[in-house]
Amino acid sequence: MQSNFKILVVDDDPQILYGTVRLLKQDGYDVIEAPTGHQAIKTAKQHIPDLILLDNVLPDIDGLEVCRRLKAEKKTCDIFVCMISGIKILSEDQAEGIETGADDYIVRPVGNRELLARVAMMRRLINSEKKLKKHLEQLEELVEQRTTALRASEEKYRLIVKNQTDLVVKVDLEGKFLFASPSYCKLFGKTEDDLIGNTFMPLVHEDDQEITAKAMKNLYRPPYKAYIEQRAMTKDGWRWIGWMDTSILDQNGNVTEIIGVGRDIDERKKAELEKDKLQAQLNQSQRLESLGNMAGGIVHEFNNILSIIIGNNELVMEDLPEWSPSRESCEEIHLAGLRAINTVKQLLTFSKQDDSVKKPIEIRSVVKESLELIRSTTPTNIEIRATLSPDCLPILGDATQINQILINLCSNAMDALPISGGIIDIELRNFEIDHCNGVSAHKSAPGKYIKLMVRDNGSGISQEILDRIFEPYFTTKDVGKGSGIGLAVVHGIVENHGGSIVCESTKDKGTLFTILIPAHEGTVEEESHKTDMLFGNGERILYVDDEPAIAKLGKCHLEALGYDAFSTTDPKDALEMIKAEPDQFDLIISDMAMPNIPGDQLIAQIRSINPEMPTMICSGYSSRMSETKASKMGIRAFVMKPLKKAELAKKIRAVLDNGKQLSSNS
């Protein structure tokens, strides 16, 4: 019953004191209160609560001093004290609190639900300690009753201990075994004769020896008790043991021996460690989600800028004669823009907002084309050797993303090579997994795969960080030498293609990345490489974008393509135009991310006025819009920013021509 559990709440803030007391009483606890440090000490001595929730900042003496005085007195030293701080405290401050005897810390602000959960956890711990204390007190009482005749009752004591399922040991002041219960000997696979005269410390894990030694020092001063959790080498390997140690005093009050009662807590500790691991994963997931959203926002702004740069550059190039010296500069701008688009795609992939469409592709051709690009930018002292099997099966994927995999892995390999150069080997071939030869490292299901391997003879990756290389923003490179998202992007693309990636590396010998991507049994359609610009026939098109430069650029592109173009930066103006004359436009193109009325809502309102109006939507980034979502909304086409004139012309022509076909069939 919680009503049997008494809590003393100490706080000088009347509102906090009243709220905390009321909350705990509502949860069934027996609650008493004190507004000052001196009153808290007096109340604690009178009522001996099970738990004290002690504010650190009090008007007379601070919480640390209150805790110190309570822990110094025999009557109150066993009371569980939880310090409460109203500000974020440093680990040194927590250490000072622990040194004064505080058993736990709570940092405000803390919600009611969390406070009740923490109190419930402390109640369970206190009740467990009471049970253990009661058990130990029974043993102590037995020892105290026979202090003058300890030797005579030794055999009787042994019989009692031998019947205990808990581990019981007795050691001298040097930690040498004087006694070990049968349960202890059984767990550690030793006889009592093996242990007597030897110290227990060699059985303790080296990482826990220091904390064990510090805890043992508490046994030489009141309350002459210490609880220790440590890993010990049992016959079955390392296991967590929880020890409640108690000192035996002689008639002069000097510690002569120490009795330890232990319990195997390995399962509990593993559960706690797993909980901590899951919490860390949750924190990492939330951090990455936040970073992904931030990256997506950056992409939106960056794509708008790229649209202006690339679009206006295209307009300039159209007006330049072939012999103009300025064309070379424009070409450089165009290539830089394409590289920027590639960077944007990586950010979209990382933020999991890439809406690329997968289709059957000949991966060998994609890899071959990628290698041509990579070789053209590779230093002459680096040799790239490729072995591409001619009979590689197709995959269901995105060629741009496969290209990105190869670029990122080769870039990573080049960074690992010394200044003098080195070798990068690339291999592509079919690979099959059946039930007999399953590749455990890849955890891939039986079936046909394409195996892509990228190997270098560079510096390699140390085993300490090998498990972290696919974490976003994790990098061992110097500041400015790498963003830390390259391998994370590769990992995301591979997973997005239903594949797996494994890294094997030896320090100073090189690294091997092995990727398995499921093969596709279907046929690959030949892509048309026709680049002729598709022009309009004077159709009236309204272009809506809140960015004035992009709205102007869109209008210029449309006019250059032979359309009667209009533009506006205000979606409300677009609505008013449609309301005034619903059939005045043949097509409406809208940006997605706009203030007041987002593009999808604008199109929905336009379609409520004129359901037959053909529409297109553009986006530099939006978690709310994709090609699939656009199609479900009745939007005829989705265009990813930055806008490219040829792609825009092709999409517009497809929408308008399809609309004519639908009209002729109706």
UniProtKB/TrEMBL annotation:
Residues 153-223 form the PAS domain. Residues 6-123, 540-656 form the Response regulatory domain. The keyword Mitochondrion does not apply. It catalyses: ATP + protein L-histidine = ADP + protein N-phospho-L-histidine. Keywords: Coiled coil, Phosphoprotein. The keyword Coiled coil applies. The modification 4-aspartylphosphate is found at D55, D591. Residues 297-521 form the Histidine kinase domain. It comes from the Bacteria. InterPro entries: CheY-like_superfamily (IPR011006), HATPase_C_sf (IPR036890), HATPase_dom (IPR003594), His_kinase_dom (IPR005467), HisK_dim/P_dom (IPR003661), HisK_dim/P_sf (IPR036097), PAC (IPR001610), PAS (IPR000014). Pfam families: HATPase_c, PAS_3, Response_reg. Residues 226-277 form the PAC domain. Its EC number is 2.7.13.3. GO terms for molecular function: phosphorelay sensor kinase activity. Residues 122-156, 261-288 form a coiled coil. CDD domains: HisKA, PAS, REC. This is histidine kinase.
